[in-house]
Design goal:
With about 300 residues, this protein is mainly beta. It has a single domain, classed as Porin, CATH 2.40.160.40. It is built from four helices and 14 strands. The strands form two sheets. A twelve-stranded antiparallel β-barrel has the order 1-2-3-4-5-6-7-10-11-12-13-14. Strands 8-9 form a two-stranded antiparallel sheet. The longest helix has 26 residues.
Length: about 300
């Protein structure tokens, strides 16, 4: 009799746990926007953010990683070099671990740490307007981040003479206005006017036009999402930097371009992508992308998120 009671209790408990898990899984569908249009079902595309914010009292743990170049035609014996480095999988260009929290349904705060420039960062995302079927044709969101580099002084000021140390030199910032529209059930579009500012830069000159690098950088991003099947989604984003210093610079500066596939499996969102960006954080990859698709300098990467209800 006792065995039956214990067995029945365990079965009921198991079904209860499964039911709760099912509810939480279903909650993911209203995770970002509980009462309006889903322009994007995730908070990140490839390199760029989306207009979506995290639902109130939800916690999102995020991991974004970029391996090294799969191929590089700039080196001697590029194919042999690529095979030796296991097509980029043997090394990591950048990895960022972050945590985002939904303070309200429209305000998300986050913190993170990146390998690139050994950067700690804080982020804020405020969705000020949400697309509806009736009266609002677009969603509009402000996104900002501030980064603090923990690089050693020797690395930070490498090549700079004389060195004038200042703790504020370690900070960099990014501000974006994200404007997105869900065209139909398969297509979503987004534009992203962006401004990046770095407190400290090493003065370089473009030897073709004699323009010097500046602390501030304006960039315009575009992104799209195309639903191919019920389980496969194609994503793309591109940033064009308005910089006369970077334009055709012999030192090699390029615009960030990424393509990828999204897959939602229970409470985890998987995004596998290819991009030429060397970093993950917005204030890092826009001014510091030194790889180009034209030479095969493309990196395999992924963005993974897991949700928790607090």
């Amino acid at each position: 009799m006792i065995r039956k009671i214990v067995f029945n209790s365990l079965v009921c408990c198991s079904f209860s746990m499964l039911a709760q898990d099912h509810i939480k899984t279903a909650d993911i569908l209203i995770y970002y926007t509980p009462n309006t249009e889903f322009v994007f079902p995730t908070s990140k595309i490839v390199n760029s953010q989306t207009t979506e914010t995290i639902r109130k009292n939800f916690l999102s743990v995020n991991l974004s990683q970029r391996f090294e170049n799969t191929y590089n035609s700039n080196v001697t014996n590029p194919l042999s070099n690529a095979a030796h480095n296991f097509f980029g999988l043997g090394n990591i260009s950048d990895v960022r671990f972050g945590i985002d929290y939904g303070l309200t349904n429209y305000l998300t705060l986050g913190i993170g740490r990146s390998k690139f420039k050994e950067m700690f960062d804080g982020t804020i995302k405020w969705r000020m307007l949400t697309q509806t079927k009736a009266s609002r044709p677009v969603s509009i969101c402000f996104y900002g981040n501030i980064g603090y580099s923990t690089m050693s002084t020797e690395k930070l000021y490498a090549g700079v003479v004389p060195i004038k140390k200042n703790e504020l030199h370690r900070f960099q910032y990014c501000s974006q206005l994200l404007i997105a529209r869900k065209v139909n059930e398969k297509i979503s579009l987004q534009i992203m006017p962006t401004y990046v500012y770095r407190n400290f830069i090493k003065l370089d000159m473009n030897t073709k036009n004699y323009r010097e690098e500046k602390n501030g950088l304006f960039s315009m991003g575009v992104a799209t999402r195309l639903k191919l099947t019920k389980k496969i989604v194609f994503v793309l984003d591109y940033f064009y930097n308005f910089s006369s210093f970077q334009n055709k610079n012999p030192l090699g500066y390029y615009n960030a371009f990424g393509i990828g596939l999204e897959l939602l499996i229970r409470k985890r969102m998987f995004n596998f992508n290819f991009t030429n960006s060397d970093a993950v954080l917005e204030s890092s990859f826009m001014p510091y992308t030194r790889s180009t698709w034209a030479r095969g300098q493309v990196k395999l990467g992924f963005n993974i998120s897991k949700w928790f209800i607090l």
